[in-house]
Amino acid sequence: MPALLEVEDLHAYYGESHVLQGISLAVPKGEVVALMGRNGAGKTTTMRAIVGLVTPRRGAVRFAGRPLAGLRTYEIAQGGVALVPETRGIFPSLTVLENLTVAARGAGPWTLRRVFETFPRLEQRRKNLGGQLSGGEQQMLSIARALMTHPELLMLDEPGEGLAPIIVQDIHRILANLKDEGVTMLLVEKSFAFATSLADTVYVIGKGQVRWQGPAEGLKAAEDVKSTWLGV
Amino acid sequence: MELVNFLGIQLLNALWLSALLFMLAVGLSVVFGLLDVLNLAHCTLYMIGAYIGFTIANWLGSYWLALAVAPVAVTVVGAVLYVALLRRLRGNHLIQALVTFGLLFVGYDAARMIWGVDQFRMAEPALLSGSFPVFGQGYPVYRLFVFAVGLVTAVALYLGLERTRLGAVVRAGVDDRETAAVLGINIDRAFFIVFCIGTALAGFAGVLAAPIRTVEPGMDVEILIPALVVVVIGGPGSLKGAVLGALIIGTADTFGPVLLPEFSSFTMYAVMAAILLVRPQGLLPVKPAH
Ligand SMILES: Nc1ncnc2c1ncn2[C@@H]1O[C@H](COP(=O)(O)OP(=O)(O)O)[C@@H](O)[C@H]1O
Ligand SMILES: [Mg+2]
């Protein structure tokens, strides 16, 4: 059976610069896959290419067996792919509640009540504007909002970036719960402990190519990979 | 007393003109601010609304039917125009200005071919035909009706933007189009609905104006300039800006010619220049300058 998400030999450019040089990866249903690598390796671009925000020059992306080439971003999202972007993308002039409801779509496992149970802080802040939230609250809202679309695949781009350790712990716990519930995730994360404790499989990206792939446990022992491509 | 009465009447005139300008400018403004389309032919749609409304009222004898049907017909024309032409010009303001300026002439000639060069005036509905005593004279009820409609329209648009799902989608799209798409929101469709609402309002304004202003070829160009000025001083894409801008220009355009007859046509530009010197982005821009 093919994986839920299959990326095959993806090449993407920004102008002349060849940013993705043949990325291939697979995210099986129910698993958590982590993309790791240094700043500028091409992790964000890979995710943007999957949702159609970057048009690859070569290669294919298939979701649930269906090629995504030529689909608009909103169609890919409606098909079940959600992205929690690096920039969080909170709508500043919408309230917390509106940020959630504007994304809500059809019936599925995620109701407003369940989201508020998972992120109690958001319920307290429901009437506040998105622009008034702290960084941690924005990240929570961004994840909660993505869940409101009932994604089959949840992609998170550096969810712990720039947040206080205690909030990173919170987010880690929430993602671990999601994993236990069987939510399929593609996670970009630079923190080695964060990524390897959640992921089943890790892909190490360096300069636009997959440099290593394997089970998260295996990466812990791969010292040369870590020092060359992760800098740890 | 004389002066108070005189100014009072001018104030009432300013109100209905402002209402009319608002209903036109809000569509122009939102289409420019959201869809990035500068549609100079927006006022041609207003003229078409007036002509269609006049024709319906003339044949079927019902002002209210005209007020209901003409905006729908105008929306169909506008939607076809958008899909066939305007949508393809997105992002290039010079081309947009040239093409839609050309459309103004097409509209002018089409109006002359269909309706001739005669001036028409549509009859007011019987219900609103009288006048009522105020400021020492009789003031037409119909003009106050136009103001009231403008007011209700502004409130309805505000509530629609702030309290409905479509409104939230539109605000999300203005905030961050890319993220909206990533969440599965079809922003193009939401903005197209907004375009249709703006177009319907232009047609609506045309029918409302038909009993006050003459229906004739060129009535569109006459109101295009003040409507554009409203957009510029209010801030493109801004609902509140369109309200404020329409009140300012409606007032300037009413009082200017009576207080300073020698400078009548300049008052509006003087006001615009003064405002833009202080706030080049308009009075109430959608995104405050950082
Ligand atoms: N919008 C852009 N325009 C030009 N170059 C870009 C743009 N975004 C990213 N890049 C470049 O592409 C490369 C990959 O970036 P990115 O995918 O953001 O890396 P990562 O997420 O792994 O840090 C980097 O060299 C970066 O400088
Ligand atoms: Mg990145």
Question: How would you describe what is shown here?
Answer:
The complex is a heterodimer of chains A (232) and B (290). Chain A has ten helices and ten strands. Chain A is an alpha/beta fold and 232 residues long. In chain A, strands 6-7-8-3-9-10 form a six-stranded mixed beta sheet, sandwiched between helices. The termini of chain A are far apart. Chain B is mainly α and 290 residues long. Helix content of chain B is 73%, strand content 3%. Chain B has helices spanning 2-35, 42-60, 63-84, 93-115, 141-163, 165-175, 177-182, 187-209, 219-234, 239-259, 266-278; strands spanning 131-134, 137-140. The longest helix of chain B is centred in the first third of the chain and has 34 residues, at 2-35. Classes of the chains: A alpha/beta (232), B mainly alpha (290). Chain A binds chain B through residues 51, 53, 72-74, 77-78, 82-83, 85, 89, 91-94, 98-99, 101-103, 105, 145-146, 149, and chain B through 165, 168-169, 171-172, 174-176, 178-187. The complex binds adenosine-5'-diphosphate and magnesium ion (MG). Residues 43-44, 86, 157 of chain A line the site of magnesium ion. Magnesium ion binds next to α1 of chain A.
